[in-house]
Design a protein that fits this description.
The protein is α+β, with helices and mostly antiparallel strands. The protein has eleven helices and 26 strands.
Length: 438
């Protein structure tokens, strides 16, 4: 692909120069923002209508994954309305940052409803909806919008007028269509590659879990006599192993509660608080850190070989993710939504926490209102425990096996990240005219 011949300044730092023949205006010049319209007269309060929760907008692909059905009476007031062909854009954190933006399609009666946290834009004749979608879905557009969000942490919103008055470069309509067609094709190719690599990584993760599960339930000696554990979901275990509750072989500690005024910007003035975001794919991540200046008890000071567990999270799938504390994080503390399990058997138990056995007891995680692994639930969990020498042998074996698989997964994940970055940079380059689509 080539660049255009002549360029002009767009008036936006992140957009930079755009092709000279493109119009430069504000988004509100080319759309109807949050249009209002009446519900068809033949619809009754009991009729089921299509509703779009935030979570039903795919943040990667920018499509609506499905519609929920709800009675019209429940959404007739206090909700956004939109039609097929409208573009919806989430303005609230973290949905805005994640890219929850989509073109509405598939509404059976051409009317749908969603949260007022959606902004709705109906393109005028001069604007192609797919081009608008790619511009709003553009990663750089959203990153540059973050500083303008207002509100408290977790409830920040992008003001309506920021989007509507933002500089908007508009190619001629045939060129918009060509850009949208090109990006549809190219992003579909990239997405197919990402999907295949994601499936491949998932198979290796399943293999890793199967290897761990076999070792922590049957050991390494296939000829060892077995006995019924007496627990259906554990099944048979080596005859010389003992069944123990976690509370009998270790101690669980709930994390630190702190106030906003305890947080300090200068890491030299505080203690690092490890939170859920510091555990990514089974490894320590220090990309999102919080430091507090506060008295911290010895119980909540992390020790080497502690097992740090995510015990409360908005996503049920993240409950139970864990890492083992090493020299790098020894002496830090941990947040209130985390739990530490401390045991002299931690080398073996850490593998147990990454087995299907641990997950099989997750039926007791959470409630109708919150996803959490309570101390009571954690302490009551059962583990089949080998003698100490055998524990070390199993841990050594699993350390070697899992490291090899983890390296393969790291390579695959790096390939996925590279493709995701390519997708983002391609969209940005094309919708801002840095690359010419013919």
């Amino acid at each position: 692909m080539r660049r255009y011949t002549d360029y002009q300044d767009s008036g936006s730092d992140w957009i930079g120069q755009v092709p000279k023949h493109w119009d430069i205006g504000r988004l509100k010049d080319f759309v109807l923002a949050n249009p209002t319209f009446k519900v068809p007269h033949d619809m009754t309060a009991d009729d089921l209508v299509e509703f779009v929760p935030m979570t039903n907008v795919d943040e990667t692909l920018g499509v609506i994954s499905r519609f929920d059905l709800t009675p019209l009476s429940e959404v007739a007031s206090g909700y956004r309305r939109f039609c097929n062909g409208d573009v919806i854009f989430a303005k609230i954190t973290p949905c805005m940052e994640n890219g929850n933006c989509a073109i509405v399609s598939g509404l059976s009666r051409n009317i749908g409803f969603g949260s007022t946290e959606f902004l709705v834009y109906r393109p005028k004749r001069s604007l192609n909806a797919r081009y608008l979608h790619y511009f709003l879905h553009n990663d750089l557009f959203r990153k540059n919008a973050v500083p303008f969000m207002k509100g408290s942490a977790g409830q920040k919103r992008l003001p309506n007028d920021y989007v509507e008055t933002h500089v908007f470069p508009l190619p001629p309509l045939p060129e918009q269509q060509a850009i949208a067609d090109y990006l549809d094709a190219k992003t579909a190719q990239i997405d197919r590659k990402i999907d295949l690599l994601t499936q491949k990584a998932a198979k290796y993760r399943q293999l890793k879990r199967a290897i761990i599960n076999a070792a922590v339930t049957r050991g390494l000696d296939n000829s060892a006599p077995m006995k019924d554990s007496g627990v259906e979901w554990i099944g048979e275990v080596p005859a010389h192993w003992t069944l123990q509750r976690l509370k009998d072989i270790g101690k669980s500690v709930i994390g630190l509660t702190y106030a906003p005024e305890d947080v300090v910007e200068d890491e030299s003035q505080g203690t690092l608080v490890l939170r859920s975001s510091n555990i990514q794919n089974g490894r320590l991540s220090l990309d999102d850190n919080v430091y507090v200046r506060k008295d911290i008890s010895s119980q909540r000071t992390l020790r080497r070989d502690d097992i740090l567990i995510c015990s409360r999270n908005g996503s049920r799938a993240l409950i139970g993710k864990n890492i083992t504390i090493d020299a790098q994080t020894e002496g830090c503390t941990f947040g209130a939504f985390m739990t530490v399990y401390r045991s002299k058997y931690s080398r073996f138990i850490s593998h147990y926490f990454n087995s299907m056995l641990f997950e099989s007891q997750s039926g007791s995680f959470g409630s109708s209102t919150i996803n959490q692994l309570t101390i009571t639930t954690l302490n009551s969990m059962l583990v089949a425990l080998p003698p100490r020498g055998e524990q070390h042998a199993i841990a050594d074996y699993l350390d070697t096996k899992t490291v090899r698989i983890d390296r393969i997964i790291e390579i695959i994940d790096a390939q996925i990240t590279k493709l995701q970055d390519l997708r983002k940079s391609l969209i940005n380059a094309v919708v801002t005219g840095k690359l010419r689509v013919t």
